[in-house]
Amino acid sequence: MMNTTAENLVKEKVDYIYQRLRKQITSIDSEACPQSFIFFVFGASGDLAKKKIYPTLWWLYRDGFLPEHICFVGYARSQLTIERIFQNADKYMKVQDCELDLYKKFLELNHYVCGSYDKPADFEHLNHEANRISQLASAHRFFYLALPPSVYGSVSELISTHCRPEA
């Protein structure tokens, strides 16, 4: 009996937090001027991306915790496609049969750009693709670096120089 009461209390608290977060997300989406967001995943072809980052982005999307106007851009050196990246990540996504339509919509929001981590021209191309994909050069941008620490410096510099949103 005590266990059930504790479990119910935890469930109530989780539901309350979920509803508060949903209310905040909804208020962001309903602003007079809709905002656009781009989430970049650097190292998109790696193990961390396929096992943790992409599944977590899917779960956040599925549960409604991401803004309505968002897209995802994977970036890595590997000559891959976004379809191949998700084939590799498929077993970690934990998609239920009843979620397949929503998952398809999530996949359509994902894109991939191949390039090096030290060439300005590749980052200029990434910026061009991001602007094309989001159709808004001023979209808010988030950068997740799933990369070796040895390239953080050059990647951060190139992001700052070539991939910042326009004012």
Automatic annotation (TrEMBL):
The keyword NADP applies. It catalyses: D-glucose 6-phosphate + NADP(+) = 6-phospho-D-glucono-1,5-lactone + NADPH + H(+). InterPro entries: G6P_DH, G6P_DH_NAD-bd, NAD(P)-bd_dom_sf. The keyword NADP applies. Pathway: Carbohydrate degradation; pentose phosphate pathway; D-ribulose 5-phosphate from D-glucose 6-phosphate (oxidative stage): step 1/3. Keywords: Carbohydrate metabolism, Glucose metabolism, NADP, Oxidoreductase. Pfam families: G6PD_N. Its EC number is 1.1.1.49. This is glucose-6-phosphate dehydrogenase (NADP(+)). It comes from Rotaria magnacalcarata.
